[in-house]
Design brief:
The protein is an alpha/beta fold and 335 residues long. It is 34% helix and 19% strand. Helix 7 packs across helix 9.
């Protein structure tokens, strides 16, 4: 048998074969660990280069998964699912989302734990969690109205990707969106719900890259003459004022339900996320659904290189001349 021992199906191999072999109780088999790289990032096999190993490290940032897939260690996942999440790295101040950013909702529509996230993506593939909504024991009509308030007035409809476990919820959400004239369309997840792949995708977005610059449009990361770019940026950010209200163990909670769950959701003994460790983990489900949507905003045209080199005052004058010429062209065309 040849495999990476991180899948839930491999637990019988660990319990029935590997552990008895390491203890010396099984002499009828042999275990050969086959690493493809060392922990310094060097390839140990001829068909992978060191650059390939770096790409694997970016693909599998979780230390446990990396150890199993790259370093040939027979280990299983333990601890927090989103252990790479750090508020100092991933939580940023709110800023106005430009109209050219892609927008979408992701939804886990449990009746007692209805979780919705509102996401945005810029033109270089950064993802932003801009709003959340977590509801316990409320009507679907009220929930649709709350989502409409979050979306606001828009020229184009926003997709809402809903967990495909209950198609009826999708149909009812669309009925309420139509009833109240909300610019939202509920659709089922457009991909197979493979939790492991979705978690790995989210891990990759969370992983800080020492060569990646923090986007300068995020407050606090602007680049000026006095302030150099800041590197070590991830691709997934959370607005600092995310907020929900819910009850937990008879306590009234008023904070981000998503961040609360992320700092609690742990791997279970079966190799899957233990939902009970995070009171259901529904916002985390919405997170991995939303992060599995491959999207980006519309890239804006860069100004001419020569124009950017002019002093600011000259740039303003030149733009005014261009606008005046454009206005004259329109008048001549319409005249």
């Amino acid at each position: 048998m040849v495999f990476a021992p991180i899948d839930v199906k491999s637990y019988w191999v660990r319990d029935k074969l590997y552990i008895p072999w390491t203890a010396g109780d099984r002499t009828d088999l042999n275990v050969i660990l086959m690493p493809v790289a060392d922990r310094e990032g060097h390839s140990l096999v001829p068909h992978f280069t060191d650059e390939d190993i770096k790409q694997m490290e970016r693909q599998w940032p979780d230390p446990t998964i990396r150890a199993a897939r790259m370093y040939g260690e027979f280990i299983t996942r333990t601890g927090l699912v989103f252990r790479s999440f750090e508020p100092d790295i991933h939580v940023v101040k709110r800023f106005e989302i430009p109209v050219d950013y892609a927008r979408w909702f992701s939804c886990d529509p449990q009746y007692h734990r209805f979780a919705v996230l509102y996401l945005a993506a810029d033109d270089i593939g950064n993802y932003y969690i801009t709003d959340e909504f977590f509801s316990q024991d409320d009507t679907l009509a009220r929930r649709a109205e709350r989502m409409a308030a979050i979306a606001g007035k828009r020229d184009r409809a926003v997709p809402c990707y809903v967990d495909s476990a209950n198609p009826q919820d999708t149909a009812e959400l669309n009925w309420h969106f139509t009833r109240i004239g909300a610019p939202i369309g509920a659709v089922l997840l457009p991909m197979r719900k493979r939790i492991e792949d979705m978690v790995l995708r989210t891990h990759a977005l969370l992983e800080p890259d020492p060569e990646k610059q923090y986007p300068p449009h995020i407050p606090g990361y602007e680049v000026t003459r006095e302030k150099a770019p800041i590197y070590g940026a991830p691709r997934l950010y959370f607005f600092e004022d995310l907020m929900s209200a819910w009850k937990w163990d008879e306590r009234e909670m008023h904070c981000s339900r998503l961040l609360w769950e992320m700092q609690r959701l742990s791997w279970g003994d079966n190799g899957k996320p233990d939902k009970e460790s995070a009171d259901g983990g529904d916002c985390c489900d919405a997170l991995i659904y939303g992060c599995s949507i491959i999207s980006s905003g519309v890239r804006k045209e860069e100004p001419q290189a020569w124009l950017k080199k002019l002093p600011i005052a000259d740039q303003i004058i030149w733009k005014a001349i261009e606008n005046q010429d454009r206005y004259r062209t329109i008048l001549m065309r319409d005249g």
